[in-house]
């Protein structure tokens, strides 16, 4: 082991000895607790309650990073803790919920679907940790795990809202799990809503649209939550198809530029 690596390890130990930031890590722990309690509710057969706790976990997950940035308490420890909490709350918990609620009758195909959801969530989080400094913050590469887990929770709540049995359209539920797993590890890009311009001055029509949307969601919260999440999930593939001609033109222009540079190099 080199001296530099020993010194680096020593610095990390010293940093942990100095202590960790309580507030953001406490919120992350709350997210982890919500995910764990969701599994407890699933074991007790309270599937709608389990779905609600997944949403609570997602809210806590959205808060911990913002609180850390606002208070200047970001740390490597917090990033790692948040990633581990996300794997439990948005990987293990929704996979367990969906298997117990609807996938168990499928036998091997059902538990394979639940495991595929879990492993894709883990791969998605690992890729995010690796690419966090190289990918633009305005967009996620692949469906975010909180959105995927919330879609699972919204599906359970929708069925409970209309008193549908989990056997109703169960093939569609199985297909949904495979779709979510694929989208998490895909290269489709999704808006992250982290753009600072999003909270700045906007046209008056934007405010009016937001108010109307809020009223509609308040009138039918379960149905509209499902619809909004479904639209977000489909936005990645739709954006990919719509932007395909523009990307092709850009690729051709870049290819022509490389050919021109290559010809100039041959001449010289």
Structure write-up:
Helix content is 78%, strand content 2%. The chain is mostly helical. The chain has a two-stranded antiparallel ribbon. The longest helix is centred in the middle third of the chain and has 28 residues, at 76-103. The protein is globular and about 70 Å long. The relative contact order is 0.09.
Which helices and strands appear, and what pairs or packs with what?
Layout: H1 3-18, H2 22-43, H3 47-71, H4 76-103, H5 108-131, E1 139-141, H6 145-161, H7 170-184, E2 189-191, H8 204-219, H9 221-242, H10 244-267
Antiparallel strand pairs: 1-2
Helix pairs in contact: 2-3, 2-4, 3-4, 3-6, 4-5, 4-6, 5-7, 6-7, 6-9, 8-9
Structural class computed from helices and strand pairing: mainly alpha
Average predicted confidence as pLDDT: 83
Helix fraction by DSSP (H/I, runs of at least 4) = over 70%
* Number of DSSP E strands: 2
**What is the number of helices?**
10
Second rung of CATH, namely the architecture of the domain at 16-201: Up-down Bundle
User: Mind telling me the C-alpha Rg?
Assistant: 22 Å
Q: Poorly predicted ranges (pLDDT <50, ≥5 residues)?
A: 1-14
Strand content: under 5%
The shape, in one word, is globular
CATH topology of the domain at 16-201: Four Helix Bundle (Hemerythrin (Met), subunit A)
* Element pattern in H and E: HHHHHEHHEHHH
Largest sheet: 2 strands, antiparallel
Oligomer: single chain
The CATH homologous superfamily of the domain at 16-201 is named CDP-alcohol phosphotransferase transmembrane (TM) domain
Please write the CATH class name of the domain at 16-201: Mainly Alpha
Q: Could you give the distance between the termini?
A: 47 Å
Strand order of the largest sheet: 1-2
């Amino acid at each position: 082991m080199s001296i530099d690596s020993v010194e680096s390890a020593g610095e990390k130990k010293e940093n942990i000895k100095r202590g960790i930031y309580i507030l953001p890590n406490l919120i992350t722990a709350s997210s982890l607790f919500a995910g764990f309690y969701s599994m407890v509710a699933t074991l007790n057969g309270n599937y709608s309650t389990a779905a609600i706790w997944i949403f609570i976990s997602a809210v806590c997950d959205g808060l911990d990073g913002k609180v850390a940035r606002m208070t200047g308490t970001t740390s490597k420890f917090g990033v790692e803790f948040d990633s581990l909490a996300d794997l439990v709350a948005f990987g293990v918990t929704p996979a367990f919920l969906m298997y117990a609620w609807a996938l168990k009758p499928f036998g091997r195909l059902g538990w394979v679907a639940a495991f595929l959801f879990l492993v894709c969530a883990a791969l998605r989080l690992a890729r995010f940790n690796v690419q966090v400094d190289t990918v633009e913050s305005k967009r996620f590469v692949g469906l975010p795990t909180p959105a995927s887990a919330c879609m699972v929770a919204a599906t359970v709540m929708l069925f409970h809202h209309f008193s549908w049995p989990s056997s109703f359209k169960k093939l569609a539920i199985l297909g949904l799990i495979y779709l979510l797993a694929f989208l998490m590890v895909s290269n489709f890009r999704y808006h992250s809503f982290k753009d600072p311009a999003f909270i700045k001055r906007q046209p008056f029509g934007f405010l009016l649209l937001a108010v109307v949307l809020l009223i509609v969601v308040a009138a039918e919260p379960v149905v509209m939550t499902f619809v909004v999440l479904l639209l977000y999930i489909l936005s990645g593939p739709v954006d990919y198809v719509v932007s395909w001609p523009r990307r092709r033109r850009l690729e051709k222009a870049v290819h022509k530029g490389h050919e021109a540079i290559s010809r100039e190099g041959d001449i010289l």
